[in-house]
Every structure is written in structure tokens, then in C-alpha cells.
Amino acid sequence: MNKKIAIIGAGFSGTATTVHLLRRHGHAPFEVILINRHANLARGVAYGTHSPWHLLNVPAGRMSLFPDREHDFLEFARNTDGSITASDFVRRSLYGEYLHTRLDQAAAAAGQARLNVVTGEVIALRLDRDGAVLDLSDGGTLYADRVVLAVGHYPPIDPPVPDHGVLAGTNYVRDPWAPGALDHIPLHQPVLLLGTGLTMVDVALDLDQRGYRGTLMALSRHGLLPQAHRTLREMPQLEPPAELLAGAASARAYLHTVRAAVAASAQHGRDWRDVIGALRPVTPALWQTLTKNERRRFLRHLQAYWDSHRHRTAPISAQRLTQLLAQGMLTVDAGRLLELRPVADDIQVDWQPRGKSRTEHWRGAALINCTGPESRLRCLADPLIRGMLAGGLLTADALELGVAADAEGALLDNAGQPSCVVYYTGPLLRARDWECTAVPELRLAALRLADRLAGTW
Ligand SMILES: Cc1cc2nc3c(=O)[nH]c(=O)nc-3n(C[C@H](O)[C@H](O)[C@H](O)COP(=O)(O)OP(=O)(O)OC[C@H]3O[C@@H](n4cnc5c(N)ncnc54)[C@H](O)[C@@H]3O)c2cc1C
């Protein structure tokens, strides 16, 4: 009988793994069962949006599914609009169309391999014979010889502060990505956005597009906004600073080397973004060389700055954000949330400005959690993840950044032994690689996993 590979999740990661399996190994007889919670395949959280303000935050020339055909997405995008260039930041919904098209094409062109799409939610997984049985929420079960968790992003968890009923109320938006989450936000009253990263930018621009004319306050520990991408005519060719890999492996040493490289490249008229971009291929190696304590130091002291410089906004989004700031429609504060309480129909938020001992009070109509996806497995409510954790099939890394997995994505058990049956691909690989969030990294993880799966029989 043909081998079966179940892929749970058809966002970017599950779709990319399927496409690579079918294109690279589809001459062999096997079946890919691609299971997604909803029928909207190849979109996931990132590319399911229809807002024209939701742009890719990576230029079109770097968004190909295929590492060896760098302009594949660009060519697809040019078929819709011939003026698009490699350095353009196009709408995210177009990227969803691209993924779906490449999935259909890979399925149609596969030799003996077959794609079987299942709409449903996997709620439990147990090992059985040499494979695994998956339980679906509709009561169905599936057997597969190999299973890939491509379950992607989980909504943020609630802020851990004394709460007097706000978090259970309708003025609180727990998950800004849930369909219709922003529909009831009053367009003329103050709204607090908790978080100042890319999710906050998306939410602020989305509200702006809906005609919001109140005042938005964005609050995070450091109050750092994502930096903006430049508008470029050509994609820069990038070389990582050689001293980084050769030098001491500490958060402080990395910081000094990168700062020195930025200063040196500025003398040659180059932008700091080129240095940050050049770190991309070596980031996993740099991360893996750090001890646990050094990683912890990086997370405590540098992560907020890293995120703001590494995860940047498209130039046009940054321009609109700057206008909102200049018009006073958006303010950004650094501080700590202390307490939430309902006051009449409003919310009152007590917060402490960074480095100060005083308490400030904010009152407004809604609080939107923009703190970004949650990656601590033990905090997730998802039944599949909870069951796998309890059964020892899935473990978190020591710093709780994601899942413990080997170099190709096989899940590691508590003793560090790789599974022969269950694999993971997606953003929770940041436990291993630090950066595994965007397409240029995720496509490599998906490709390596596809090759590993095909090599297991
Ligand atoms: C808002 C946003 C914008 C982004 N923009 C960019 C960008 O412009 N460029 C870039 O490179 N990266 C971007 N990213 C990064 C993003 O992580 C990746 O590009 C990629 O989309 C992640 O895909 P994924 O498949 O791993 O996860 P997801 O997109 O979250 O997909 C996971 C899928 O699995 C399904 N699923 C989960 N659990 C189950 C289950 N138990 N049973 C069945 N189905 C299940 C979900 O319903 C979902 O469809 C963005 C991320 C976000 C959140």
C-alpha cells in the first residue's frame, strides 16, 4: 500500500512542504493528506487577509517558494501587474493566490504521488504501528505513516495582570486575526493597542482604512516601532561580517560586531539594513553557538531591538504610520501594563511608564491585544498540542521559544531522541534557529523536511 504523509495545517509551511514533496519526489507512489481547519487553503493567518493595506513585509524578489528559483513569486506577481519589481512590497492576499496556484500545479504535475485535501481540525495524535492515528473534531480518524505539524501561529495570550472583568468583556480583542475581530471597534473613541510590533502596525492601518478617527495608543515594554524598509531599485548583495562566526559567542560580542559592521558599511555609503539582511543565512549558526545563558541574555537585553530592526514594515505602511503619528492619531508609549478595570462602558488601563515609578491611567473604548503569536507550548489551549505535550510526543525547548526538533524537523522527546514519525515545520522552529518566521527561512525548513520525509522509506 502507498505510504501516507499527513500534513496538519495548510498555511505557508504546510503548503510549501506539500509542494516540495510533490515536485521533488512525486515520481514515487505516496499520498499527501493535507488537513486544514478551514477550506481556505494556502493562506494561513498571514495571507488570508483581503485588506489592501496589508502588504508583504519582505520584497517580492525574496518571496519565492523555491530557494533555487528566486524570482518565481515575482514572475507570478508580474502576470497580474507588469510594473511590479523585485523590491516592491505587494499585497499579502496576492501571495496567498500564488501559494494556492503553485499547490494546484504541483498536485497536477506529480507523477505517481497524490494529494488528498481534508478540511477539518486535528484534535489528537497517537502513535500506532509504525505511524500515527489522527483524531478529527468531527469524529473521524486518519492513519498516516508520517505526520507533519505545520500548525503555524497561535493567538496571543491575555496579559498577566490583575483584571476586573475586562478580559472577558466585549471591549477586549484577544485575537486581532480572528475573522471580524475589529468589526465592532468604535471609530471615534480611544483604543489601546497592546504591543508596538508588526501586528500593531497591521491593526492600526486596518482601523485607519475603516475610517477610524479616534486616538490610538500603542503600548509596549520598550515602545519600539518596527523600522521601515527602504524603497530600492535593486536588491543588495549581502555578505555577513566574517568576524561574527569567528569571534566570541556571546550576545555582547555579537552586538559589538554588528555595530562595528554597521559603522564600517556606513563609511562606504551602505545602509544598516544591508548588515542586518546579511545576517540572515548565518543567524541559525550564530544562535546555535550561544549557550543557554547567552541566549537568555540576548532575549532579555537585545530581542526588542533585534525585532524592531529585523522585522521591518513596507515603506508605504511606514509612511502612513508616520502620518498617523504626526497627526496625533497614534501615540506610542514605553511602559508596563499594571491593571485593567471596566469603568461604565469603557476600560481603564493603569500602566507604568518605562523607568518611572508613577502610574498613568488611560481610559477608552477598547483594548486590542497586538502582542503577537504565542509560542510557549504550555500556554496554548489547542487540544492537539496539549495532548501531545502530555503524552511526551512534543517538547518545548529550554527557553520556551517553540518546539524541540532536530535539524530537519523531527520532534525530539524529553530525552532528546528524534521521532521517526512526527515532524514539525513552521515558526516554532525559532527555538532551534532563532529566526524562522518569514518565507526565506520557512521555505528552506519545508524543503529540508520534504527531502527527509521522502528519504524515510
Ligand atoms: C500577520 C502576519 C503577516 C506576515 N507577513 C509576512 C510577510 O509579509 N512575509 C513573510 O515572509 N512572512 C510573513 N509572516 C510570517 C509568517 O510566519 C509566515 O510567512 C507564514 O505565513 C507562516 O505560515 P505557517 O503555515 O507556518 O502558519 P499559519 O499561517 O499560521 O498556518 C497554519 C495553518 O494550520 C491550520 N491549523 C492549525 N492547527 C490545526 C489543526 N489542529 N488541524 C487543522 N488545521 C490546523 C491553521 O488553521 C492554519 O491554516 C507574517 C505573519 C503574520 C502573522
Structure in a nutshell:
With 457 residues, this protein is an alpha/beta fold. It is built from 14 helices and 16 strands.
Describe this structure in words.
- By secondary structure, the protein is α/β, with parallel strands linked by helices.
- It has three domains: 3-154 and 375-454, FAD/NAD(P)-binding domain; 172-227 and 313-369, 3-Layer(bba) Sandwich (FAD/NAD(P)-binding domain), CATH 3.50.50; 242-306, no CATH class.
- The chain contains 14 helices and 16 strands.
- It has helices spanning 12-25, 44-47, 72-80, 92-109, 198-209, 242-246, 251-267, 272-278, 283-289, 292-310, 315-326, 383-390, 430-433, 439-454; strands at residues 3-8, 30-36, 114-119, 122-128, 131-136, 141-144, 146-149, 172-173, 191-194, 216-220, 330-343, 346-353, 360-364, 366-369, 410-412, 418-424.
- A seven-stranded mixed beta sheet has the order 8-14-9-10-11-12-13. Strands 3-2-1-7-16-15 form a six-stranded mixed beta sheet, with helices on one face.
- It is globular and about 65 Å long.
- The mean pLDDT is 94.
- It binds flavin-adenine dinucleotide.
- Flavin-adenine dinucleotide (FAD) is lined by residues 8-14, 35-37, 44-46, 56-58, 92, 121-122, 150-153, 202, 384, 426-427, 437-439, 442.
